[in-house]
Amino acid sequence: DIRAGGADSAPTLFHKEGFYSSLEVVGQIGDLYIVCSSPNGMVLVDQHAAHERINYEKIKNAYTQAKKPETQDLLVPETVEFSSFEASLLQGHMEDFNKLGLRVENFGDNTFIIRSVPAIFNVSGCSGLLKDIVSEIAEKGSEESLNEKLERVISTMACHSSVRASQRLNMEKMKALLIELDSMEFPHSCPHGRPVAREISFYEIEKMFKRT
């Protein structure tokens, strides 16, 4: 039973350089899992978890290396209204959001307007993203350090910018996703700790069919 867990628990097989891109993509099931053939059996890759890991590292690396992220302006800027408490939290983190490629401006009272988002985002539903980010920050309040808050913010941004469940991917997109996954520092788990992939060995498959 070979599983790809967090960075420390991933098995030796998954540490092989170029592991994901070496897999033969067979197809997609449930519009969520990429099915691959491996030398030891079959590998299932959670496409959302994989893309979430990729986007998390992209956003975080751009921020920590002080690189100006690629952004896209919203053709129709979105306005979002918050409670007084949430508005004060948002006001205190607007500079950090700008560094992450999320340009937000105060629109009066407790209302804010979203002007631009990172280029990797789908521009629809930006208000939901901002609400989730503020909710993440408010959840721990002053108990968390700024770095811890930013980790949560970046994780939320990565989740919103990733391919979803029930999203059909063609063969080229699935292969490209696996190739990009191999270039990540910690490719075996999403930012929330869920595994990206699991391998089912030929031995396990043979047990299912009572061939052992």
Question: Order of strands across the biggest sheet?
Answer: 1-8-4-3-2
SSE series: EHEEEHEHEEHHHEH
- The number of distinct helices, counting runs of at least 4 residues, comes to 7
Distance between the termini: 15 Å
Q: Percent of residues in beta strands?
A: 15-25%
The major beta sheet can be summarized as: 5 strands, antiparallel
Looking at the chains present, what oligomeric state does this protein adopt? single chain
User: Helicity level, as a percent range?
Assistant: 40-55%
Mean of pLDDT: 86
Write down the overall geometry: elongated
Poorly predicted regions? 1-12
Question: By helix and strand content, what is the structural category?
Answer: alpha+beta
Radius of gyration: 20 Å
Number-wise, the strands total 8
Question: Notable features of this structure?
Answer:
alpha+beta, 3-stranded antiparallel β-sheet, 8 strands, elongated, disordered N terminus
Topology overview:
Layout: E1 2-4, H1 19-22, E2 24-29, E3 33-38, E4 41-46, H2 47-64, E5 71-81, H3 84-99, E6 103-106, E7 111-118, H4 126-140, H5 146-160, H6 171-181, E8 197-201, H7 202-208
Antiparallel strand pairs: 1-8, 2-3, 3-4, 4-8, 5-7, 6-7
Helix pairs in contact: 2-5, 2-6, 4-5
Describe the model.
The protein is of the alpha+beta class. Helix content is 41%, strand content 23%. It contains seven helices and eight strands; from the N terminus they run E-H-E-E-E-H-E-H-E-E-H-H-H-E-H. The strands form two sheets. A five-stranded antiparallel sheet has the order 1-8-4-3-2. It has a three-stranded antiparallel sheet with strand order 5-7-6. It starts with a strand and ends with a helix.
